[in-house]
Design goal:
The complex is a heterodimer of chains A (109) and B (386). Chain A is mainly alpha-helical and 109 residues long. Chain A has a domain of 66 residues: Orthogonal Bundle (Cytochrome Bc1 Complex, Chain D, domain 2), CATH 1.10.760.10. In chain A, 57% of the residues lie in helices and 0% in strands. Chain A is globular and about 50 Å long. Chain B is mainly beta and 386 residues long. Chain B folds into two domains: 266 residues, Oxidoreductase, molybdopterin-binding domain (Sulfite Oxidase, Chain A, domain 2), CATH 3.90.420.10; 109 residues, Immunoglobulin-like. Classes of the chains: A mainly alpha (109), B mainly beta (386). Chains A and B meet through α1 and α4 of A and α1, α2 and β1 of B.
């Protein structure tokens, strides 16, 4: 095997593995509306981990139902922010985005 | 090619080296999940805890506890102190009971080997995508459960004729205005001699993640019919009405095209699991020599597996697998097949099971808006070397 290319490939794979993992359970920034990410993080990780949200790949209609269901269940969302929540979620977690990578638990007997 | 597991192992070594150069990268390495008693399980969510068994672990008839999947809808309670724990039996009974763990141990003990499978196992494969935990192929396990029969406890409480459904509630913590996770099962299933108040799994007291000190086992049914950290049993005159009976855990009477809306009144509550198979080995993306020992499991809820077939040519021809000798009414059945690949290259292996009710896994999934009972052929893509 050609060593330098193996090293580059390993480095590349490592970086993309890190990117996938670092990204997988985190909410991405929202350049057009920087505060909305902070609001989503605060509101949508109050009961469960971000993973429950960021693993979804849903249409805007489906995100609308989810956000309304979570508000009914007690999520704190200022009514003025509801539409921005739905926009943020449906842009970042839309059906065309690749599925996230899921980590594994440590080894244990 | 290397298997996915080797891939992670190899690259995390590389990451450790890269991480020394950059603090952000080393953070990624430290972000590990140490969940007591759970070994290399896929973390679908750490809160609420949802862990999936990698399919390559499904090679033994009894799933070891460290590979048994975990599904929580709510926040797990703190580990329960048996001294404080009581099981209340109420509703349509002559004498409501409040039982301790040692009271439960005085009833005749019964053992059942059964699968538990999450109704949403495979949800992640439905298109269009559906909301919910994006399970792959491993929200399933087969274990030996022991404890008193629910029937004996209901009879001791003096079950009344008016009792038609039995409701379970566990100690999981309900947050905000979330509806509590309460479901009921019909009285016929509750009185079945194999429906248990299980205190043991695989011969050991339940571990916390599986509902210590006591859980129901409603064998052969969707996992949500088996309630963990059980605290309350209530006999009702009709089916429990609540979010997790309706709209939750229902299946359309007339399944439509993918994406089609369903009238919630034209649905029925999920009960028994359907016919399904799982290819354990070779693992997805694994590289193999030409002679391959294909292995896996198959199950059918309350029915028996009668046949498992494999295809290595995209479903044109099917060959019967050899069924394992261990079997029990609600348990899965191991199967195996020795295959010699005709030449090197990439292959897709398909498996399909048939059961004693004459059901065979379908070629396309039955679409439903909650992503339940995904049971099309199982498949793995592998590489065969010269």
């Amino acid at each position: 095997m050609f060593k330098p290319s193996f090293f580059i490939t390993t480095l590349f794979l490592s970086l993309s593995w890190i990117a996938a993992h670092a990204q997988s359970f985190d909410f991405p920034d929202a350049p057009k509306n920087p505060q909305i990410k902070e609001k989503v993080v605060k509101s949508c990780t109050a009961c469960h981990q971000s993973a429950v949200v960021v693993q979804q790949r849903l249409s805007k209609a489906a995100w609308t139902k989810e956000v309304d269901k979570m508000i009914k269940w007690g999520a704190q969302v200022d009514p003025a922010d509801r539409d921005a929540f739905i926009d943020y979620l449906s842009v970042n977690f839309s059906p065309d985005k690749p599925a996230p990578e899921f980590p594994r638990t440590d080894a244990s007997q | 090619m290397i298997s996915r597991r080797d891939f992670v192992r190899t690259t995390s070594g590389a990451i450790a080296a890269v991480g020394a150069m950059h603090p952000l990268l080393s953070w990624a390495v430290d972000n590990s999940y140490n969940i007591s008693g759970k070994d290399r399980m896929v973390v679908r969510s750490s809160q609420f805890l949802d862990l999936e068994m990698p399919p390559e672990f499904a090679t033994s008839w009894i799933t070891p506890l460290n590979h048994f999947f975990v599904r929580n809808h709510m926040l797990a309670p703190d580990p329960i102190d048996v001294a404080d724990w009581r099981l209340n039996v109420a509703g349509s009974v002559e004498h409501p009971l409040s039982l301790t763990l040692s009271d439960l141990q005085k009833f005749e003990q019964h053992t059942v080997v059964s699968i538990i499978e999450c109704a949403g196992n495979g949800r992640g494969f439905f298109r269009p995508q559906l909301p919910g935990i994006q399970w792959g192929r491993g929200a399933i396990g087969n274990a030996q459960f022991s404890g008193p029969r629910l029937r004996d406890v209901l009879q001791k409480a003096g079950l009344k004729d008016s009792g038609k459904h039995v409701m379970f509630r566990g100690a999981d913590v309900v947050l905000g205005k979330v509806p509590p996770f309460i479901r009921s099962i019909p009285i016929e299933k509750a009185l079945d001699g194999d429906t248990l108040l299980a205190t043991h799994m695989n011969g050991q007291p339940l571990i916390h993640h599986h509902g210590f000190p006591c859980r129901t086992l409603t064998p052969g049914w969707v996992g949500s019919a088996s309630c963990k950290w059980l605290t309350d049993i209530k006999v009702l005159d009709k089916e429990f009405e609540g979010n997790f009976m309706k709209p939750g855990y229902r299946f359309p009477n007339h399944p439509g095209k993918p994406g089609e809306a369903i009238n919630p009144d034209d649905t029925y509550p999920l009960t028994a699991l359907t016919v399904k198979s799982l290819i354990a080995l070779p693992a997805e993306s694994q590289s193999n020599n030409r002679t391959i020992h294909l292995q896996g499991t198959a199950w059918a809820g309350e029915a028996d597996i009668t046949r498992v077939e494999l295809s290595t040519d995209g479903g044109s021809t099917w060959k019967p697998a050899k069924l394992g000798h261990d079997h029990a009414k609600y348990a899965w059945r191991l199967w195996s097949y020795k295959w010699k690949a005709p030449r090197s290259g990439d292959y897709t292996i398909l498996s399909r099971a048939t059961d004693s009710q004459g059901r065979t896994q379908p070629a396309t999934p039955v679409w439903n808006p909650s992503g339940y009972l995904y049971n099309t052929y199982d498949q793995v893509k592998i590489h065969v070397q010269a």
